[in-house]
Amino acid sequence: MSKPTSKIDIFTHIMPVRYREKLLKIAPPGLDIIVNVGSTPTLFDLNQRFRIMDKFDGLRQVLTLSAPPVEQIADPKQAEDLARLANDGLAELVHKYPDRFAAGVASLPMNNMDAALVELDRAVKDLKLKGVQVLTPVNEKPLDAPEFLPLFEKMAGYDLPVWIHPRRGQDYPDYRTEEESKCRVFSVFGWPYETTVAMTRIIFSGILETYPNLKLITHHCGGMVPFLRERVIGSYDRIFKDLKDDVRQRLSKPHVEYFRMFYNDTAINGNTSALMCAYEFCGAEHLLFATDNPFDTELGERNLRQVINAIEQMAISDAEKEMIFAGNARKLLALSS
Q1: Max CA distance (Å), the chain
Q2: Is the separation of the CB atoms in 311 and 321 below 8 Å?
Q3: Residues 102-144 pLDDT 10s
């Protein structure tokens, strides 16, 4: 059995140098995610990043801006400026290192939607970025909030994907009687839950019915949906009739078919059985190689090693593995190589 050599890691994180310098000046002191940024040099040190990438044949990355989202740390005007700075930096990296970076993904000032839509046009038309990343929730607002619908309309028109990244902090308590989450529950389990909530709200709001060609990429392999698929199907089959009339009327086909419209990345730290579960739910056509680089115990190398190995061990054809490793990304992002 041959191993696919070309690999496009579709969900990696980075911080362009000038953006990082500006971020550290204006971010609130003690913000936990800023501490994380400082302890992960491969977010900004390209030499270290490239040394790790060189250990894996045929590897290129799609770059997204690392958290925090600009709208979390800046007022609407500052967020606009930060997004422009970040997007300029991403575009510069892709232009300078095309053999390393297959594409860049825009960030938008989601607390300033007029500016966000203008920046989206600039990012796609002028900078040639290949989509946008949104973090959910957006300053505690759901992605299906009416103010965000113009973004989905534009992305459907551009026929480019939206990368959905979950964002919960320690201030999301595990129980209502507490003030904060303990033992990192907010990220280890809360992020897949947040992804699942966002997917469900997008479906039942009718966004995918209105924009059937809209392409949405979930982080961490579709949250909980592929692994609880029979519960999802059975539960909504049972309660669908109890949903409000306007909710039911937004859907023209079974709810599970909308869940299968999402593209799901493989960034679950390497787990063949879990990937097979996702494969059985959405098919190879909707799985995308990703590692969440560089966030692991080895500055990105561990997840690369484990995720690649997990995909290679999947009981699927070589052609399907090639789709997951690179083919789907090329098609989705209209990449020439």
Answers
A1: 57
A2: yes
A3: 999 999 999 999 999 999 999 999 999 999 999 999 999 999 9
